[in-house]
């Protein structure tokens, strides 16, 4: 999906790691939520409450889910983070991403 229609956006940014990772929250009419953001080069660890779909729109990174090996995305790609788990990122270039929160 290239464009989101009929949404609300929370103006205040979500800021992590001294501003090296930022995002904006997008709320949909059906109650679903996504964040659109940018990650600058560095190494980060996040935890998830809900299952997440990480849609990498552009950039070069490695990601590691619990119990798995490091995997590379160079350009675009998607990975899923299980609910209640941590994941690690190594960001090599500016990464443009969209995170979808999945409530199953």
TrEMBL record:
**Keywords, ordered alphabetically:** Glycosyltransferase, Transferase
Q: Give one GO molecular function term.
A: pyrimidine-nucleoside phosphorylase activity
Q: Under the cellular component aspect of Gene Ontology, which terms does the record hold? A: cytosol
Q: What is its EC number?
A: 2.4.2.1, 2.4.2.2
Q: Does the keyword Glycosyltransferase apply?
A: yes
Family matches, as Pfam families: Ppnp
Q: Which reaction does it catalyse?
A: thymidine + phosphate = 2-deoxy-alpha-D-ribose 1-phosphate + thymine; adenosine + phosphate = alpha-D-ribose 1-phosphate + adenine; xanthosine + phosphate = alpha-D-ribose 1-phosphate + xanthine; a purine D-ribonucleoside + phosphate = a purine nucleobase + alpha-D-ribose 1-phosphate
InterPro entries, per the entry: Ppnp, RmlC-like_jellyroll, RmlC_Cupin_sf
EC class of this enzyme? transferase
The family database entries (HAMAP family) matched by this protein are listed as: Nucleos_phosphorylase_PpnP
Similarity comment: family membership: Belongs to the nucleoside phosphorylase PpnP family.
Q: Describe its function.
A: Catalyzes the phosphorolysis of diverse nucleosides, yielding D-ribose 1-phosphate and the respective free bases. Can use uridine, adenosine, guanosine, cytidine, thymidine, inosine and xanthosine as substrates. Also catalyzes the reverse reactions.
Check the record and name the PANTHER family matching this protein: PYRIMIDINE/PURINE NUCLEOSIDE PHOSPHORYLASE, PYRIMIDINE_PURINE NUCLEOSIDE PHOSPHORYLASE
Question: What's this protein's name?
Answer: Pyrimidine/purine nucleoside phosphorylase
**What gene codes for this chain?**
ppnP
